[in-house]
Structures are given as C-alpha cells and as structure tokens.
Amino acid sequence: MNLSNLAPAWQQYKSVNSLTDIPEAEILSAIEPRRTGAGKFLLKRFVQNAFAYSLLIFALHGCAV
User: Fold this and answer.
1) Taking the model in full, what pTM does it have?
2) Among 1, 23, 53, 17, residue whose Cα is nearest residue 9
3) Taking the chain, what is the end-to-end CA distance rounded to the nearest angstrom?
4) Checking CA distances to 37, which of 1, 8, 11, 31 falls within 20 to 30 Å?
5) Each residue of 25-43: pLDDT tens digit?
6) What SS3 state is found at 20?
7) What percent helix, strand, coil does the chain show, rounded to 5?
C-alpha cells in the first residue's frame, strides 16, 4: 500500500483537528496491532467459556423438554 498519496490529506487532517503536537511515530504505534499477550488472552477466554459451558451443562442436566 502506497502511503505517500495520503500525506496531503493527513497534513490537512492534523491541522484541522489540531493534532500537530502528536508525533507520527506515536500515532502509528497506537494503531499497529499488538501481538504481545494474545495467547494469554485467548487461553483466559477459553477457560472462562469452558467454565460457563460446564456450569450450564451441570445446571441444566436434569431439565428435559
């Protein structure tokens, strides 16, 4: 993706919204994907969902429609 075509629009956006004090590196670091801790987050979500599912199965085990 060629980002040089977006430079004039970016300069106009910064001047309109008064973002000239924020360095471009800081903005780019805020929007780039963060890969650290993704595995831990996925494991935590999996454990929470497994616990909720097992709780539902245990609670609704005797219910028959």
Assistant:
1) 0.39
2) 17
3) 56
4) 1
5) 887 887 877 666 667 788 8
6) coil
7) 70, 0, 30
